Amino acid sequence: MNSSDSDLQIAGDLLEVQHLLRPAPEHPATVAEFVGLARTIAADRDHWAPLVRYDATTRWYHRLHTGPGYEVWLLSWVPGQGSGLHDHGPSSGVLTVLDGELTERTDRGKRTLGAGAQRVFAPGYVHEVVNDSLEPAVSLHVYYPGLTDMPMHAAQCAPAAATA
Q: How far is residue 34's CA from residue 30's CA, in Å, rounded to a whole number?
């Protein structure tokens, strides 16, 4: 076994190997601890699943939890719904897909995020999240400090094709 292999890398889906995850501390203070908090909440499906609602006109969201300086949001996405291109002001965050599939678009391209996938971002990180699938999706968002600003950005235009 390569020394860089870990149980988590071998197992694949982190949410399926609960015995390997350390419990999140009561008051997270590091990026790793906020990621752990998101995983702990994600694993408690009986807590969050009954709260989910789907709204065909707008993304549905519910503040699930708050702590010292942070907040946790539960969001649902029906097919075609998206966030628009935005950043999170002074907040850092952890995005965890709980159900379904979401697409994250940045200036570096796009990435498909299935259930269990997590993205960590720092203040000023610009992205768009969209449900490009044919099924609803649910995601969990942890923000530190709590989300107070979500500046929207104009969509980046693709360079014009060269003409011959």
A: 6
Q: Which amino acid is at 63?
A: R
- Which residue shows structure tokens 């966030």? 83
Query: What is residue 163's three-state secondary structure?
Result: coil
Half-sphere exposure of 68 (CA within 13 A, CB side): 6
pTM for the whole structure: 0.80
* 40 class by beta-carbon count within 10 Å (0-12 exposed, 13-18 middle, 19+ buried): middle
CB 88 within 8 A of CB 64: no
CA distance 83 to 61: 12
Token output for 91: 């907040």
- Rounded Cα distance, 12 and 148, in Å: 34
Indicate left, alpha or beta for 163 from its phi (over 0: left) and psi (-120 to 50: alpha). beta
Q: What is the pLDDT of residue 6?
A: 37
Tell me, what's the pLDDT at 29?
86
Q: Please state whether the peptide bond connecting residue 23 to the residue before it is cis, i.e. omega within 30 degrees of 0.
A: no
Q: 33: which residues sit within 8 A by CB, 6+ positions away?
A: 24, 25
Question: Mean pLDDT across the stretch 42-59?
Answer: 96
